[in-house]
Write a structure and sequence with these properties.
Elements: H1 2-5, E1 17-20, E2 28-31, E3 37-39, E4 47-49, H2 51-58, H3 94-99, E5 113-117, E6 120-128, E7 142-145, E8 150-156, E9 159-165, H4 186-191, E10 213-222, E11 232-236, E12 241-244, E13 257-259, E14 268-278
Parallel strand pairs: 6-7
Antiparallel strand pairs: 1-2, 3-4, 5-6, 7-8, 8-9, 10-14, 11-12, 11-13, 13-14
Biased composition (Polar residues): 105-118
Region (Disordered): 99-118
């Protein structure tokens, strides 16, 4: 009778089950799903452990090659003299972590550089002595001569093109007069974007191809009467406004300007101070010179 009281009937077990017990004298059946291993995690009882639980127990990153000690977290501390705490990416390939994925610092030694920056392709930059650059470069190759500070690029197969001369010593920058590269828009920098000083000279000449066009130094001021494009103006001190000149009135002749738009009395008008103006009906360019007439503004 005693033996019959302690046996475990086969009816307790279905397919893919095993016998286990988490409590004394209490056997039970545990179903094992596919790709599971019997084990016990840090908490809980005996269970059919899945992949995540197993990797957690052996302390291995998901996807790591457990046959390679370089990829096992617990083994990294004994690879070499470097402490485990110094390795910033456990589970990553050590070669990649050292040569590709760290931030450049004072002890970083660089060689050829290639890859992408901001999704833009970066050509491989080779460097060395000027005389050591390849005699047969491939199109796209870039070479920095460390002894002459020259930067070359191969645009035509087996031929170097000098991009620019660099002065990299002491953080020096070459004089603007020595810069010949079209990479910086020198025309804009010189002719459009600087403040006039004693060394600056302006050339207002412009081949005016269209009627009612102008080029030169302009100003905007109040006018004291109705004016149109091409009217010759003078400054009237009594009204403090610009009015049309009269060749018979000497007081109207100093400080001449030309109206560049039609405006009424008391309005602000765009005026040409110095430069060139074209008005096919307003001016006779066939004459040798243009004179102010007795007709006001003409």
């Amino acid at each position: 009778d005693t033996e019959l009281a302690t046996y475990t009937p086969k009816s307790l077990f279905d397919a893919y089950t095993i016998l286990y017990a988490d409590t004394d004298d209490t056997p039970a059946a545990l179903y094992m799903a596919a790709s599971r291993i019997v084990g016990r995690a840090a908490t809980g009882g005996i269970a059919a452990l899945d992949k995540a639980a197993i990797l957690g127990i052996i302390n291995v990153e998901d996807g790591a090659d457990v046959t390679d000690v370089d990829n096992v977290t617990t083994a990294l501390g004994s690879i070499n003299a470097n402490a485990l705490a110094d390795i910033t990416s456990p589970g990553a390939n050590i070669e990649d972590a050292v040569t590709k994925k760290h931030t450049s610092g004072s002890e970083t030694q660089g060689g050829d550089v290639s890859g992408t920056v901001g999704n833009a392709s970066v050509d491989k930059i080779k460097r060395g002595l000027d005389a050591s650059k390849s005699a047969t470069p491939a199109v796209g190759d870039i070479y920095l001569a460390t002894d002459t500070d020259k930067l070359y690029k191969c645009i035509i197969a087996e031929a170097w093109t000098l991009l620019k001369n660099l002065d990299l010593s002491g953080n020096n920058v070459a004089d603007l007069a020595d810069v010949t590269s079209a990479g910086a828009n020198l025309e804009d920098a010189v002719t459009k974007k600087h403040t006039q000083n004693t060394d600056t000279q302006f050339d207002f000449y412009n081949a005016l191809a269209d009627d009612l066009t102008w080029s030169g130094d302009k100003d905007t001021q109040l006018v004291g009467e109705s004016v149109i494009f091409g009217d010759l103006l003078y400054f009237n001190w009594a009204t403090k406004r610009w009015k049309k000149t009269d060749a018979d009135a000497a007081a109207t002749m100093p400080g001449l300007r030309i109206a560049l738009e039609s405006k009424g009395d008391g309005e602000v008008c765009l005026m040409l101070v110095k430069g060139y103006i074209r008005g096919d009906n307003e001016f006779d360019f066939g004459a040798s010179m243009i004179y102010a007439s007795v007709t006001p503004g003409a």
